[in-house]
Design brief:
CATH architecture of the largest domain: 3 Solenoid
Distance between the termini: 136 Å
Radius of gyration: 44 Å
Helix content: 10-25%
CATH superfamily of the largest domain: E3 ubiquitin-protein ligase SopA
Largest sheet: 4 strands, mixed
Number of domains: 3
Strand order of the largest sheet: 2-1-4-3
Mean pLDDT: 83
């Protein structure tokens, strides 16, 4: 005797085992009595309609109504309205890849968050659609693919908003790698000469904050150039023309400025510790005074320099060498006010 287990269509529970005999109509009558329904049709486990009793193995019965479980299985598909643009995906896509994300919490269970829907049933989310698309694709296949013209920073902000942490970390690395590394290497003489040649004579060349460390800038015409806060440490500036240039807060430590023209130079609060300024000319016939107020001149060798009118107020001259320097009495009295000249060499300072 053949036996078969009958289930109500769409379920796999509460099955009834019955004997198979007679015709298909006889089996439907027995099934109706066993399951307490009005059995109309007979289906196999894959949903195929059975119209011949000789084909029966494992079947499901239907009373003609759509099963709640069957209709519910299609709700795994859902539509999102992101900033007015529709995206159709599955619940498992939003939940599986990043289970701790905001999207996973929103759609893991039905209506837990009370998500708002538009007239078509799409879930409303007020975010940017162009930045959301790469996020949805990442949840589908795990790869970050961003079309040309889409700002990675925008995608990163959306990933952070939705709590897609792994994607956010990858985006941060991609953004960092997309920027060229900062070049802090010092400018060479060749590069700087190119700048000089390209600059009109009446235009001011701005080199504020640039790095010239160790560069050979000797004998160049550097008049009126703005070197404010530039790094000129260990530079070779011998016989360079720095007339009226701005060296305020510049780093000149260890630099060689022997024989340089420093008429009217501005060196306020500059650091020239250990620099060599032998035979420099600070005196401007027009009366424009060089200003070294507050400069660090520790250990500076200024032997034989023309210092008439120079302003050294509150400058530090500890261990500085001022042998055979030239100054005037008024300048020596007024402009050295507050200076530190501990153990300075002022031998044969010429007073005119």
């Amino acid at each position: 005797m053949r036996r078969v287990t009958l289930f109500v269509n769409g379920t796999s529970k509460n099955g009834k085992v019955v004997a198979v005999y007679g015709t298909l109509s006889d089996l439907l009558t027995v099934a109706s009595n066993k399951l307490g329904i009005r059995a109309c049709n007979l289906y196999n486990g894959k949903g195929g309609l059975i119209d011949d009793i000789t084909l029966i193995r494992c079947v499901a019965l239907s009373d003609g109504k759509m099963s709640d479980d069957i209709s519910g299985s299609h709700t795994d598909w859902l539509t999102l309205n992101i900033g007015g643009r529709l995206f159709t995906t599955t619940r498992s896509t939003l939940v599986s890849k990043e289970p701790d994300s905001m999207l996973a919490h929103m759609f893991r269970e039905k209506d837990v968050w009370g998500n708002k829907q538009d007239e078509r049933g799409a879930y409303l989310i007020d975010r940017s659609p162009e930045y959301f698309e790469p996020i949805l694709n990442y949840l589908r296949h795990g790869q970050i693919i961003v079309n040309e013209g889409i700002n990675l920073l925008g995608v990163l902000e959306e990933a952070r908003f939705f709590g897609i942490e792994q994607m956010a970390e990858q985006l941060e690395v991609a953004i960092k790698n997309s920027h060229p590394p900062e070049d802090h290497s010092p400018l060479s003489r060749k590069e700087f000469v190119r700048f000089l040649l390209a600059t009109p004579t009446k235009s001011e060349l701005r080199c504020q904050g640039l790095n010239f460390s160790g560069a050979d800038l000797s004998r160049l015409d550097l008049r009126y150039i703005n070197f404010k806060m530039a790094n000129l440490s260990r530079c070779n500036l011998t016989y360079a023309n720095l007339c009226c240039s701005n060296l305020e807060r510049a780093d000149l430590s260890g630099a060689n400025l022997d024989g340089a023209n420093l008429q009217g130079v501005k060196m306020l609060c500059s650091n020239a510790e250990g620099a060599s300024l032998k035979g420099c000319n600070f005196e401007d016939p027009s009366g424009l005074k060089a200003n070294l107020e507050g400069a660090n001149l520790k250990g500076v060798d200024m032997e034989g320099s023309q210092m008439t009118g120079i302003n050294l107020r509150v400058a530090t001259l500890k261990n500085a060498k001022l042998k055979n320097c030239k100054n005037d009495p008024s300048g020596l009295k007024a402009n050295l006010e507050g200076k530190t000249a501990h153990r300075s060499h002022c031998l044969a300072l010429e007073i005119k």
